[in-house]
Predict the structure.
Amino acid sequence: MEFSKLRVRLAVRLAWVLLAALPVFGGWKSSGPFGGSARSIAIDPQNGSLLLVGARDSLLFRSDDAATSWKALPFPSLTPGVFNALLIHPRESGHFYAGLDAGDSSDSGLYESRDGGEHWLKLPGISGLRIESLAMSPQDPSVLAVGTQHGVYLSSDGGEAWRRISVENNPEMQDITALAFDPAHWNTIYAGTPHLPWKTSDAGATWHPIHEGLIDDSDIFSLRVDPARPERLFASACSGIYRSETAGESWTKLTGIPGTQRRTHIIAQDPANSDTVFAGTTLGLLKSSDAGRTWRHPVTEQINWLAFDPSDARILYLATEDAGILKSTDGGETFHAVNTGFANHHLTQIAAASGRLYASSSYEGLHGGLFVSTDGGFDWSLRANRQALLGQNLNSLVSAPGPSGLLFAAGDDAVLKSADAGKTWVRLLSQPRVAAPDSSSGRIRIHSLQALRTSKLILLAGTQAGLFRSPNSGLSWERVTADGVAHSAVLNVYAPPAGASRVAARTVQGLFVSDDAGVTWRAASLPDTSFYLYDLALPVERGPILAATSRGVLRTSDSGTHWDLITEGVPAATVDSIRFHPQRTLDAYLVQYGKVYHSSDGGVSWKSVSADGLEQSSIRSLWFAPDLPGRIFALTAARGALLLDSTVAATDAKQETHGQ
């Protein structure tokens, strides 16, 4: 039995070594985990294989193969926003419209692309307005309407010119959450607001509310006009689903829908059968085959949008809040995920243990938590959702250095441990605690967790009440009483790429360094308070320390007694993340404004590396797996993880140097 286990361990190690040798060609690659939040979806009316999906952080994705794979599209917005509405021109494939809500930023507005999303132009006249809804006249695709925080705007020339058609001083028509054209009369438009639906029959010259039969203060999320019977309308609202047989003059609330399903984001009809209606709600998809009289519940994910294949109504796609894009080929009876290349996860941490990579995400319910990869980061699967993580959103994830394969994680108020590669987790019975007269548990908020390997495994937890140390894998904790880290909130704890005795802690009082695994500490104060620390790079062996700050890269050769601001090759501006290579002791990498730099002299000078594939990627941190030294991982705000072969990166930097 022991021999068999040894053979398995050797096989895993060999596979890991071989994976480390595999190059990643063509720049940064989307690593995943695939899936996440999809907010809107559109399908080409002429070509059912062409789809466009919008997500958070101003992310757009295109599929040319019926969602088999997705490509992230370049987009000019620098402000994170949400795509609430997308349209594809019915006569011009590759002609896209995307409505962006980026808050009060000037980046909000309606964008147009005529080359399949490779280039975008923000349309004039409505620049800076938050686009909440978008509609195109079925009669004339040059007639567009947008719903904004300041009312309804109409264009009759494909978006070149716009005019406000809602009453400017009417407070009831400010936030337009839904729009729909009458299919037979382009000048008849329906508009939904957070209070009531409205209607105009003269292209906005006059409007009147249409709310008879609706529960007052019903947030209208979507409106649907039956193309076969324009007098029949459907409205989805926070109070339920409604149908009108009188062009909106009166409404009937549809029954048969569970009370928990009332917040309905989208309502749509089967193009082949107008009596078949779908409703996307916060708690799943509802399907009715009798015009909304009775309903079934085939999907339980929160649905944000829905689109049908124009050539085959049995094929439909869902944009979901947590499960990415789902596809059905049997008319909505069953669905499966189609997310390869689509990633909208916010990853918080990444770690490696026993030939596996682990990545954690936050606030994603049953579809987020802990992901695992066994092939060096090319493919990920969900290992433990929030339920398996005992309700915790992880802010720290570390592996025990050495062969044990143990994983430790910190949530807001708990330290968790897994001994089975992340499948199951237990809360450590002993937590970092303080005396709390007003609390029976004395539990405190945990900001950061690190694991060090000296002669034994040491855990360090940075908390709101100071630094705590465990010399026995979390079985018991002791408060560190050294000056600076005692009774002061510890915001982060930093360790080298591989287990060592050197460790650093950032507190509200400053930066502190320890050379004995956290027993004793000394101050390593930055030059002054104008340097705000974002990240710290500690080398595996004795050597310089690098700090990523709000004013640039700082370097110290004497453990923080003196710091130098480094400006050779890198601007003196905010640096988000900085890391030493786990094996090449003088190699370091940093990220600044989404651009990655490499140093081969311990941080004295820097050169930029390949940016191919980093478009629309807000990088939060860089990371190396100690057993995969040839691969850099970039954790992003919304696109999950990206990876790059560091040999290629170093080559790019050398070529740039020779070219100067």
Observations:
- Residues 1-26, 435-440, 648-660 have pLDDT under 50 and may be disordered.
- Helices lie at 2-21, 646-659.
- Residues 20 and 628 are 5 Å apart (CA to CA).
- Residues 1-32+533-660 form a domain with the Methylamine Dehydrogenase; Chain H fold (CATH 2.130.10.10).
